[in-house]
Specification:
The chain is mainly alpha-helical. It has helices at residues 2-21, 26-43, 61-79, 83-91, 99-108, 110-115, 118-128. The chain is elongated.
């Protein structure tokens, strides 16, 4: 039992001595990590998608929704109904009493919508919502 306690004590002391001997400080290391993280997040464009509160900015909600749910939206559009196409209509500002008309227009444009590139598809959805 004493051998283990002695060994643990020596190991702890040598670790502490190595940290101080190398000039490594916890504060210095922490600052280096946080400074690097701040520089990376400040230089990426993703930060502009979010408010100071960490919420997605309204102008990016449609893009994010489509990127995360494209397969489900496509399936709902093919059927002309469903929770994803309803959410899409809501994001586009389609009033509740016009949702059915939006579903029908979107289903009718399904082939065109699915062959378009991402930006063109978003613009077509916006046009359908009018």
């Amino acid at each position: 039992m004493r051998r283990i306690d002695l060994w643990t004590g020596l190991l702890t002391c040598s670790t502490v001595l190595m940290l101080f001997a190398s000039g490594c400080t916890l504060k210095g290391t922490t600052n280096e990590i946080t400074d690097t993280t701040s520089n990376v997040t400040a230089s990426t464009s993703g930060r502009t998608w979010f408010t100071e509160d960490g919420l997605l900015r309204p102008e990016h909600k449609l893009t994010a929704f489509m990127a995360l749910n494209q397969t489900n939206v496509e399936q709902d559009l093919a059927r002309g109904q469903g929770e994803y196409v309803t959410s899409l209509g809501t994001l586009l500002g389609v009033p509740n009493d016009q949702q059915s008309a939006f579903y029908a227009k979107a289903q009718g444009a399904f082939e065109t919508l699915m062959t378009s590139d991402h930006e063109a598809r978003l613009q077509q959805f916006r046009t359908l919502a009018r």
